[in-house]
């Protein structure tokens, strides 16, 4: 990430990391999470669930920052994110 | 197996954080793919979780329609009333149990068309309830008939050549009827919508939040606007946040800019406060106030 000003407390800042949980059978393939994930973590998979929809897959899970946007946007309560502890140092 | 499939590291865990507030035995819900209703429910559930309120003292009341199904999916005291009658039911509930937080969650057709008279009078009396109105510009459940919110030129199954009626501007209607809190968001503004729900629930008096949400199956299809995801993208590109503007300047035209934000946040005595003040004035110390914060009712 590029900063227009280096934060004074950059050595103390950590980027949170999240772990995704996708409940594939509940998904109706709307694509809201794929479209709006700010870190481009998700893609719709080629797989079908039993309703015939393509659930999302975490194609770049290491990029997830646990912002919960996918969880909040999902109309079917089919995806959520939990925080994992090994936070990344902020790159200078 | 495709390359995309194998990379799924996400675990199959069945416990979603909203499950405490949802009736999971009724899932999957009836709403279509890319409908905005589920997202709005998540925002309300998040608001309730963040407020930390006692859910045993909360009730959600809906009328009839796709939006009217919300009450049946939330694990609060829920009531699915007849068409248009969510507000009178909620008013009765509020008066008999003033210790409870009452939330009305219903559609524009239900609340503003058949229920329009209840709407203006509940706002006029400043009854302490929260109204969440999902506006999808159409009567969705019954097949896409024209609604009092359908923008001019938008197609519906009863206006196949385009709507020619003047629509209601819901924030203006709520504000001019007497609401003390009025906001509008789209289903894409999840965090701002959640904050507005929190403010509206905490607000003493009639609080109103309009949520513009995609109806993919009827509104989007009849108007050839693509899916609900396309409508979300439209909201992204065409919403303008204008806090505090005059609600009269927040009219919605067909597929043009949507003004969103918090328009009204004022203080005014609530229905029960007015009742107590009037009776105290007439009966003096003999009058025992009704519905106090100490739970005396
Ligand atoms: C007394 C009565 N009249 C008409 C109906 C038919 N009806 C059911 S839902 C509905 C409109 C719902 O529209 P809205 O409130 O906008 O909800 P949506 O489905 O769009 O979410 C109508 C007219 C009914 N159920 N009862
Ligand atoms: S939590 Fe945020 S960053 Fe992680 S997948 Fe969801 S939307 Fe993307
Ligand atoms: S008909 Fe429209 S409002 Fe009803 S569930 Fe489907 S998309 Fe949602």
Structural description of this entry:
The complex is a heterodimer of chains A (92) and B (297). By secondary structure, chain A is mainly beta. Chain A has two helices and four strands, in the order E-H-E-E-H-E. The longest helix of chain A has 5 residues. Chain A is elongated. Chain B has one domain: Thiamin diphosphate (ThDP)-binding fold, Pyr/PP domains (Rossmann fold, 3-Layer(aba) Sandwich), CATH 3.40.50.970. In chain B, helix 5 crosses helix 6 and helix 6 packs across helix 7. The N terminus of chain B is likely disordered. The chains are: A mainly beta (92), B alpha/beta (297). Chains A and B meet through strand 1, helix 1 and helix 2 of A and helix 2, helix 8 and helix 10 of B. One iron/sulfur cluster binds next to helix 9 of chain B.
Features:
heterodimer, A: 92 residues, mainly beta, two-stranded antiparallel sheet, two-stranded antiparallel ribbon, 2 helices, elongated, B: 297 residues, alpha/beta, Rossmann fold, eight-stranded mixed β-sheet, disordered N terminus, binds thiamine diphosphate, binds iron/sulfur cluster
CATH C-level class of chain B: Alpha Beta
3D shape of chain A: elongated
| Overall pLDDT of chain B | 93
Number of strands of chain B: 8
State the order of secondary-structure elements of chain B, H for helix, E for strand: HHEHEHEHHEHEHEHHEEH
Rg of chain A is: 15 Å
Number of helices of chain A: 2
If you average the pLDDT of chain A, what whole number results? 90
Estimate what percentage of residues of chain B fall within beta strands.
15-25%
Low-confidence stretches of chain A: none
Main beta-sheet strand count, sense and barrel state of chain A: 2 strands, antiparallel
Rg of chain B, please? Answer: 20 Å
Order of helices and strands of chain A: EHEEHE
Question: Stretches of chain B where pLDDT falls below 50 for ≥5 residues?
Answer: 1-13
CATH topology of chain B: Rossmann fold
CATH superfamily of chain B: Thiamin diphosphate (ThDP)-binding fold, Pyr/PP domains
Number of self-contained structural domains of chain B: 1
Distance between the termini of chain B: 64 Å
């Amino acid at each position: 990430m590029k900063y227009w000003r280096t934060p004074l407390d950059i050595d103390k800042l950590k980027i949170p990391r999240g772990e995704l949980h996708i409940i594939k059978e509940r998904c109706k393939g709307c694509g809201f999470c794929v479209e709006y994930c700010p870190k481009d973590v998700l893609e719709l998979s080629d797989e079908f669930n039993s309703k015939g929809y393509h659930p999302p897959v975490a194609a770049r899970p290491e990029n997830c920052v646990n912002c919960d946007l996918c969880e909040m946007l999902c109309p079917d309560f089919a995806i959520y994110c939990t925080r994992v502890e090994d936070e990344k140092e902020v790159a200078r | 197996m495709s390359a995309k499939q194998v990379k799924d590291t996400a675990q199959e865990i069945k416990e979603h954080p909203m499950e405490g507030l949802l009736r999971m035995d009724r899932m999957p819900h009836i709403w279509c793919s890319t409908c905005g209703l589920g997202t709005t429910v998540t925002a309300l559930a998040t608001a309730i979780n963040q407020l930390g309120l006692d859910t045993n003292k909360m009730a959600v009341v809906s009328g009839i329609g796709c939006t009217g199904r919300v009450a049946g999916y939330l694990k609060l005291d829920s009531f699915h009333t007849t068409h248009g009658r969510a507000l009178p039911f909620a008013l009765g509930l509020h008066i008999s149990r003033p210790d409870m937080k009452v939330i009305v969650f219903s559609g524009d057709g239900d609340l503003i068309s058949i229920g329009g008279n209840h709407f203006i009078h509940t706002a006029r009396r400043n009854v302490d309830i929260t109204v969440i109105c999902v506006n999808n510009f159409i009567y969705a459940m019954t097949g896409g008939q024209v609604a009092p919110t359908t923008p001019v030129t938008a197609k519906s199954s009863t206006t196949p050549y385009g709507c020619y009626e003047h629509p209601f501007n819901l924030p203006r209607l709520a504000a001019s009827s007497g609401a003390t809190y009025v906001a509008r968001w789209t289903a894409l503004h999840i965090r701002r919508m959640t904050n507005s729900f929190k403010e509206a629930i905490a607000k003493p008096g009639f609080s109103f939040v309009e949520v513009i949400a995609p109806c993919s199956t009827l509104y989007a299809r009849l108007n050839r606007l693509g899916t609900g995801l396309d409508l979300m993208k439209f909201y992204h590109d065409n919403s303008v946040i204008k806090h505090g503007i005059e609600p009269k300047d927040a009219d919605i035209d067909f597929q043009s800019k949507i003004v969103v934000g918090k328009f009204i946040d004022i203080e005014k005595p609530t229905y029960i406060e007015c009742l107590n003040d009037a009776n105290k004035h007439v009966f003096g110390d003999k009058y025992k106030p009704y519905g106090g914060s100490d739970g005396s009712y």
